[in-house]
Amino acid sequence: MEVIIQPDREAAALLVARIIAHELRANPHLVLGLATGRTMERVYRHLAHMHKTEGLDFSLCKTFNLDEYVGLPPTDPNSYRFYMNHHLFSHVNIDPRNTHLPNGQAPDLDEECRRYEALIQRFGGIDLQLLGIGRAGHIGFNEPLSALRSRTRVKALTPTTIKQNAPLFGGEDKVPRRAITMGVGTIIEARRCILLATGQSKAEVVAQAVEGPITSMVTASALQLHPRCTVIVDEEAGALLREKDYYRWIFENEPEWEIYR
Ligand code: GLP
Q1: Averaged pLDDT for residues 96-120
Q2: 206-224 tens-digit pLDDT
Q3: In sequence order, what are the beta bridge partners of 153?
Q4: % of the chain at pLDDT higher than 70
Q5: Which pLDDT score is estimated for 56?
Q6: pLDDT band at residue 128, thresholds of 50, 70 and 90?
Q7: pLDDT greater than 90 at residue 14
Q8: Beta-strand pair 153-156/178-181
Q9: Ligand 1 midpoint to CA 132 (Å)
Q10: Mean of the pLDDT values across residues 38-58?
Q11: 180 Cβ closer than 6 Å to some ligand 1 atom
Q12: Cα angle vertex 148, ends 144, 154, to 5°?
């Protein structure tokens, strides 16, 4: 795992967007794993801007989102399909047929989970997976006690997650109780993972995920097993990391990061 600490949330999101843009230019057929949440909105704004001003080309790129709420139609502003169309897909030249999310309205949800896994495999697996982190330490909707080798499946949301997402729905009672999510095992098979976390509210869970033990209680900690995972935080989200100076030194001295400094 590598940790990069940026001065603020804007700089952290810009760095993530620049890494994605770099990978996309190197491989226009990139299979990109996408995430939702407020943290990612800034990343998508930067990518849309890069498309507009630098011609960043998404025409051959394929995307797979981590998760989707059960029961919400794509027209519902709280569905992740709506979120993706609104924040990214409608601003870049991606072919809508190349954008994939689990269908939370499928009549047979277990079958839908199997279909989604098979589709990822058919496209050769995910090259770069973007991740946020929930306050329960989850990646996707892999809530505490999700098996570290789990695959795409239906998960019940924890009260913490329901509370965290309630403002968007206008009340806890309106938040769906279940979601389809890629499993922890699915996620850590991606060839590269980038986790972005910003703001004070994420500081504790970031420290647990990065420097704590690997545990299904904090599913983001499974990323410690990944051979190529970069965690990008702002000063606030990185505030409780013990080895901050070491991480800064690596970012300043590692040749791989030269183009981003
Ligand atoms: C939801 C999503 C996660 C995301 C998390 C954090 O739970 N399923 O993928 O990481 O929200 O969201 P935010 O960026 O709004 O804090």
Answers
A1: 98
A2: 999 999 999 999 999 999 9
A3: 181
A4: 100
A5: 98
A6: very high
A7: yes
A8: antiparallel
A9: 6
A10: 98
A11: no
A12: 65
**Under CATH, to which class is 2-260 assigned?**
alpha beta
Residue 234 Cα to chain centre, angstroms: 16
* 120 and 186 Cβ atoms separated by less than 8 Å: yes
* The pLDDT of residue 136 is above 90: no
Pocket test for ligand 1, best of 39, 169, 184 (most atoms within 8 A of CB): 39
**Of 136 and 251, the one with more pLDDT:** 251
38 CA to centre of ligand 1 in angstroms = 7
pLDDT for 142 equals 98
Using a 6 Å cutoff on CB, does residue 39 contact ligand 1?
yes
What whole-number distance in Å separates Cα of residue 13 and Cα of residue 28?
Answer: 21
pTM above 0.90, yes or no: yes
End-to-end alpha carbon distance in the chain: 19
Alpha carbons 113 and 154: distance in angstroms, whole number = 8
Q: Which atom of ligand 1 is nearest to the CA of 133?
A: 10
Ligand 1 lined by 141 (C-beta under 6 Å): yes
What's the 117 CA to ligand 1 centre distance in angstroms? 21
Using the CB atoms, write b or e for 58-90: b if 16+ within 10 Å. Answer: beebbbbbbbbbbebeeebeebbbbbbbebbbe
Distance 253 CA to ligand 1 centre (A): 31
